[in-house]
Design brief:
The structure is a homodimer of 239-residue chains. By secondary structure, the first copy, chain A, is α/β, with parallel strands linked by helices. Chain A has helices at residues 19-28, 38-44, 46-56, 74-94, 113-134, 157-167, 178-181, 187-198, 227-236; strands spanning 8-10, 33-37, 59-64, 98-101, 137-140, 172-174, 206-207, 217-218. In chain A, strands 1-2-3-4-5-6 form a 6-stranded parallel beta sheet. In chain A, strands 7-8 form a two-stranded antiparallel sheet.
Chain lengths: 239, 239
């Protein structure tokens, strides 16, 4: 049987399972870890989730995801910052080393993607002290450019690396996902630039041809992403 | 009435019109130009199209599109090169200054996007002499990364600029489309890098939120792309 101790399942891929069902279901298959989603944690209870994870022996890859910053009003922006501080607290409570930062798209009613990228940068700087204090990293996940409008204005791993450079590696890292980055000619070189410490966790799935809609992800092996080659890149940088 | 003399309509946006219907329809609205698609040209006849365009006083922005290079067998690759030479001939015959190069995605059955990018580069070098001899440029259109699997492995304007650098500006240029490039943090700087001569023609449409599928383009103004700002970039570089 394959060693699945370093393998974690992202909870959203078994979305019909409750938190305890996911914990028990993964553990029963010998899966080592879990990437938790906060709605499931909240439904089950943070402390109860933490205890159940410990009892089942599952390690936690990350907590998904941050609250979005694509809000127009300053008060709403501050509320999003505060909500993300509470999400960092939840991550600390369940033993997640990072919160996966999905930052939101363009502000509804606006067309200013460049301006929103600057606001996201501000938000990350505002969150850094709390992240540091609770010992949870800001896991920057670049999302595929097809999500720039409505889900995230952070679309390139080079951009995420730039942000890590300025935030500091003690508080920020990368959450690369092959689905979002596979097409990027700079994917390999940006992983090398990041190095093993900065890569907090790594997502595998596949890009289907044809892709029917913007949620049409494939199982590993069913698409055109060269997973083995990408795994080789990680090995060579010591990840 | 607005001056539409520099404005061309891409024929695929009126796909139910035949070539003569498009020519007459655009001219009747005072539209200055047309981006022709080769299937309509072939249906109507190349010489007849050329004559009708001249008679109607329409200028030709481009001929769409190249034949794809995502073929496995060497003989098929050579056939694609030869087909593209004939497409360059068609462009010359109708007075199109460039063929819009849509280069094809990953080779079916392969997962080697990096290797396919090198083959595309080879193909462009192989086409350059014929393009030069007939006076038609290779118009490199980066396609949105969501088309990397099945339509084009050329996905970044920086990549297209790199290719123009090595092919030479006398034979290669850019066909930027805001739909494909709007999300790219380097869009403005890469247009500046290109300068006015290298930008052969420029496509406007819009990115809708939500975007329902991979063909769900919007009319200019209906989406989140800041068209006015991008038009300003072009003005400042003298395009």
């Amino acid at each position: 049987m394959a060693d699945l101790s370093r393998f974690a399942i992202n909870q959203i891929t078994t979305y019909s399972w409750s938190m305890p069902e996911a914990i028990e279901g993964y553990a029963a298959q010998g899966v080592g870890g879990i990437a938790c989603w906060r709605n499931y944690v909240a439904d089950y209870g943070t402390e109860r989730t933490a205890r159940h994870l410990r009892d089942a022996g599952l390690w936690v890859a990350s907590l998904c995801t941050s609250a979005w910053f694509n809000v127009a009003a300053e008060a709403d922006f501050q509320a999003a910052i505060e909500e993300n501080r509470r999400i960092l607290d939840m991550a600390a409570a369940i033993g997640a080393p990072c919160v996966v930062m999905v930052v939101g798209g363009v502000v509804p009613g606006s067309k200013d993607i460049a301006g929103q990228r600057l606001r996201v940068r501000d938000a990350l700087h505002m969150l850094a002290p709390h992240a540091r204090s609770v010992g949870v990293k800001l896991g920057l996940e670049p999302l595929h450019p097809m999500y720039a409008g409505d889900r995230s204005v952070l679309n390139l791993i080079s951009h995420a690396n730039d942000l890590c450079d300025e935030l500091g590696e003690d508080v920020a890292g990368l959450v690369p996902d092959v689905y979002h980055c596979w097409w990027d000619p700079a994917f390999e070189s940006e992983l090398r630039r990041a190095g093993p410490e900065r890569i907090l966790t790594f997502h595998y799935c596949d890009w289907l041809v044809p892709t029917r809609n913007l949620r049409d992800r494939g199982m590993v092996g069913d698409g055109v992403i060269d997973i083995a080659r990408i795994r080789g890149w990680r090995s060579r940088i010591g990840h």
